[in-house]
Amino acid sequence: MTPSNAATSCCVSSRSAARNDPPPAVFRSSTSGALQENTQDTGKRTGGMEKRAYFSKTRLPYLLILPQTAVILLFFYWPAAQALFQSFLLADPFGQRNQFVWFNNFIRLFQDALYWKAIGITFVFSAATAVLSITTGLLIATMANRALKAKAAIRTLLIMPYAVAPAISGILWLFLFHPSYGVIAHILIHWFHIDWNPILNGTHALILVIVASAWKEISYNFVFFMAGLQSVPKSLIEAAAIDGAGPMRRFWVIIFPLLSPTLFFLMVMNVVYAFFETFGVIHTVTQGGPGGATLTMVYKVYKDGFVGLDLGSSAAQSVILMLVIISLTLLQFKYVEKKVQYV
Amino acid sequence: MRKGSNVVWLVAFCAVLLAPLAVAWADPIEIQLWHAQRGPREETLNKIVDAYNKSQTKFKVVAAHKGSYDETMNAGIAAFRAKKQPHILQVYEVGTQTMMLSGAIYPVVDLMKDTGHKIDWSSYLQPVLSYYVSAKNELQSMPFNSSTPVMYYNKDLFQKAGLDRPPRTWDEVGEYTKKLVASGAKYGMTVAWQTWVMIENYSAIHDIPLATKANGFEGLDTELTINNPMVVNHMNRLKTWLDDKRFVYLEREYKGPEAAFINGDCAILMDSISAIGALKKNVKFNWDAAPLPVEASMANPQNSIIGGASLWVLKGHPKEEYQGVADFLAFMATEDMQILWHKETGYFPITKAAYEKLKAQGYYNQEPLQEVGIKQLMRKDPTPNSRGIRLGSFSQIRDVMNEELEMLWQGKKTAKEALDDAVKRSNELLRQFEKRSKE
């Protein structure tokens, strides 16, 4: 298995795992509901006290989780372990010579100023992408929720960009913003007299990939905010309106706090997205350039591993990436989740 | 009796019916060829493969497109690790050193010897061959698609500026582009594949080393030397031209530069000869090609160097299959196939015989554009500085050079700083490659 596979599989599985997690409240009730029958089967009655449930046969539960475990082991843990192992090796690409070099690949990375630069760029890029796509998604969802006519059609249209592959999204945006043939670039240069050149100007290039990446994720955020908004009780809003609260106040005092679980969930998902799934956008738009201005950690894993064939360093980078994303998600759960109000 | 003859007839009839099938059942041995050619080039390659497959029945070459050069090489590496490698793998020139040291190859010179092909390598185009030979001057991979950069210029814009011929020296390029911009051209010149043209070829043409140890041919402990005064001056000059629109940098590859030439924004384009096809199709004004400019001090410029890819034979297949591999490579090198390849793709033929035959046929009188590159390539015998470049991690080194040049174009570094940093960073990559490649 290749390191970048490991990186992707890591992101895919963490993403799907997060998606499969229903909010805790639902989780609790559905579990106890499903197991209630079982409790009755065994004839143990616990009355009004908290019910304890267990499977009478010990082999069945293991059998039931076996397929999922096998998939995770095969497609996540095994490649991840391979990447970990590979990160301690200095290997030639054809696998003819391997030297065990302990932490050399890691030490080399952290001594490399360019790697620190890539880390910095990744954080700026991820934060900007997440903030931009979440705020825009929230804004559009709030407005679409109020739209009366053609609500369904508008919603469907707004969801469409999510179906566009990142690479294609990148090409589309490059097409609009290419300094030689881009329509919007033409407007920027000739109407607004901005010296727009993402090919040569690192800041412009970074802005371009952030916008292209955020655009794609807006739809995803929109869907979740839309669902969140619909679960806000109308009565609360009406009561506030009767009490004289204006639309802004109603939004910030009632709707926004009630959306906080969605917001929190989307924060995690968007950061994961910006870290891993924006590869296609960067690959098609800038290839990490100019001068490394859009070289994110994920893109560097690919570049060093697949173009440079430095598998050890590439594997070490994907291990670091894995640690970064694990700690980032843990931090979010530890600090941000406290502010979340589950109803 | 009557019944018996019926049976005989039936058997005979069946035999006739089945005969072609029997031939088909004697399966030809499949030879896998993985390549990165697309579009018209892939079609021409398929023509060659079909011609070979029809020329005999014992072997069948199967060509498969595996994506870009990077992707094709990675596919080959992954397949080799899984012991499912193709017989022939097309690898771009920057991967040459990696392939040579891989321990995964069957050198072409040995393959041909072992399979009884007697090839006079001196009948090949030396500047093409020299890129792929070992330190002992033995050919390791079969040259396949080779190109070199030349200078294209917009004759209409030249005329408007009162210029009647292409610039020969870099000083002239400076004067010409000044006049071109003054007479209304948006930019003077641009370049595709800047590191290949402005550093690698510039060094070769002026016979200065790009790296120590004969550009890396003589040892893994090679170091880059592109921060020498000549290259620094050249880059400095380009930077001053960039500031007054005599030069414009559009991108590392070719799309932007070619577009700028085609739409008339740029009067001069320095780009690979493989651009001829696209320019012929899209350019709406008078244009021509000329050799790359040289410094005035260089009375007899060296040959330019090639880019492109070669075909590597991977080891690990049964012996009888390599007979087919060798036959196929020899077939590709025949005059007819080389002429077909050159005419349809613009890439160089690899044998002198093919070139001479084309000349005798008057092909270059009809297609003078096609001869500009080949003449530039053949104008002198290669020296250690102009036979090619043999660096490990070369693809990354090109990235480094590109990044540092972009720093220069953005005005974040001076030419000296940028090239010093390029050398420093490339040397680290070379040391890392050296470590990785030793037992």
Automatic annotation (TrEMBL), chain B:
Gene name per UniProt: ugpB
Assembly description: The complex is composed of two ATP-binding proteins (UgpC), two transmembrane proteins (UgpA and UgpE) and a solute-binding protein (UgpB).
GO biological process, one term: transmembrane transport
Keyword Glycoprotein assigned: no
Keyword flag Cytoplasm: no
Superkingdom, natural source: Bacteria
Keywords: Periplasm, Signal, Transport
Family as reported in the entry's similarity comment: Belongs to the bacterial solute-binding protein 1 family.
Leader sequence segment: 1-24
Family annotation (InterPro entries): Bact_solute-bd_prot1, SBP, SBP_1_CS
Gene3D superfamilies registered for this protein in UniProt: Periplasmic binding protein-like II (3.40.190.10)
CDD domains, alphabetized: PBP2_UgpB
Name this protein carries in UniProt: sn-glycerol-3-phosphate-binding periplasmic protein UgpB
Species of origin: Desulfatirhabdium butyrativorans
GO cellular component, as recorded: periplasmic space
Localization annotation: Periplasm
Classification via PROSITE patterns: SBP_BACTERIAL_1
